[in-house]
Each structure stands twice: as C-alpha cells, then as structure tokens.
Design goal:
heterodimer, A: mainly beta, 4-stranded antiparallel β-sheet, globular
Chain lengths: 113, 111
C-alpha cells in the first residue's frame, strides 16, 4: 500500500449524473494532485493543491470541480460528463509542491455512458 | 510545451538479460528525474529518483542521467518476468513546479 487511498475504485455514470471521487493520504504530505490517465496518452495533470490552496488548474473543463478541505483529503466532483472523460483518475501526493516525488493512489476507473 | 519523450514499445527482452529504457526531455532547466513502474491495471509506483549527472544504482536498477544531452535511462539487470510493466519517465521542473510524464515504455520479459 502506498498510503494514498481512493474511492470508489470503479464508477459508471451517465452523462447527467453527479458523483464525487475521494482521495485520502496518510503520508503527512502537503501537496495533492489529480491526474487523468487515458490509453496511449501521458498522464495529464488536472489540479494541484499545496497546503489546501489550489495552485494549478491545467485548463480543465468546469464539469470537473476539485475540493481540498485539508492537506489529507482531496475530492473531485463530477457533473454532466462526456464519454471522452472515461479514463483512470489518479490522486497523488508529495511532501510539498517543490518535490517531484509523487505517491499515487490506486485510481478510480471511470466510465461515462 | 515542455515534453518528455519515450518509445512506447513494447520492448521485449529474455529473462536474465539487461533491459534498457530511455527517455529524453526538452526543458533544459529540469532539475529532478524519476522512473515509475506501472503494472497493468495498477497505479504508477516510484522506483528511482536521480538528481545529478551520472549513475545511481539500487539493486538491479540503475538510473543514468546526462543533462548535457537531456536524456535519462533506466537499466534493469537480470530482468525477471515480474519486471514486465510500463515504465514512466518523469521530469520535474523547478521553474514550473511541475512534473511532466512521458507516455511510458512497455517492457515484456520473456521467460
């Protein structure tokens, strides 16, 4: 186990649904990240939080809404998604924003129907 | 656009051989370099970090960095079938405070 947990592990949702992904890290890190991983593409950074403050929004559509209530928890709220949003969503943490060493959770496999 | 380039493979090597995985990057001010291993259906796992030119060894794994040529490599000695996975190269730029990942190289170790 990496110390980063994610729920749910699998999610199937319709285009009109609203759902949330949850991430929790038990490593005492201060930075947390959301990534999207699609087949045959590099990992795409979506959002970065450092000490609970959002420091980066990588041109992500507004149908994805992050929330970081504290340094240990991170959410990704989903609404009116498109089929092309189907992917593996990975949460990661690092000691701080200035560290390149990232520790990933197991991911949520999302399918939008 | 700062890029990290890898051959997606698959790279097939026989068991016991040396697997050589390569990565090039475009941002000259990149500071830190990482290799992640991702088994099929799993998330990436950090296996090596390298920060200065030269070699860094950890067990059967050796990371090599050449900043002048802007490439990073990972050597796996005595390859085992359990090493079969996709290996992601990642580069951290202090200026952008961001890690950029390559597409990954799929390694297949044939028994």
């Amino acid at each position: 186990e990496t110390g980063v947990t994610q729920t749910p592990r699998h999610l199937v949702m319709g285009m009109t649904n609203k759902k949330s992904l949850k991430c929790e890290q038990h490593l005492g890190h201060n930075a947390m990240y959301w990534y999207k991983q699609s087949a045959k593409k590099p990992l795409e950074l979506m959002f970065v939080y450092n000490f609970k403050e959002q420091t980066e929004n990588n041109s992500v559509p507004s149908r994805f809404s992050p929330e970081c209530p504290n340094s240990s928890h991170l959410f990704l709220h989903l609404h009116t998604l498109q089929p092309e949003d189907s992917a593996l969503y990975l949460c990661a943490s690092s000691p701080d924003r200035g560290s390149g060493e990232q520790y990933f959770g197991p991911g949520t496999r999302l399918t939008v129907t | 656009q700062k890029e990290v380039e890898q051959n997606s493979g698959p790279l097939s090597v026989p068991e016991g051989a040396i697997a050589s995985l390569n990565c090039t990057y475009s941002d000259r001010v990149s500071q830190s370099f990482f290799w992640y291993r991702q088994y099929s259906g799993k998330s990436p796992e950090l296996i090596m970090s390298i920060y200065s030119n030269g070699d860094k060894e950890d067990g059967r794994f050796t990371a090599q960095l050449n900043k002048a040529s802007q490439y990073v490599s990972l050597l796996i000695r005595d390859s085992q079938p359990s090493d079969s996975a996709t290996y992601l190269c990642a580069v951290f730029s202090g200026g952008y405070q961001k890690v950029t990942f390559g597409i990954g190289t799929k390694l297949q170790v044939i028994p």
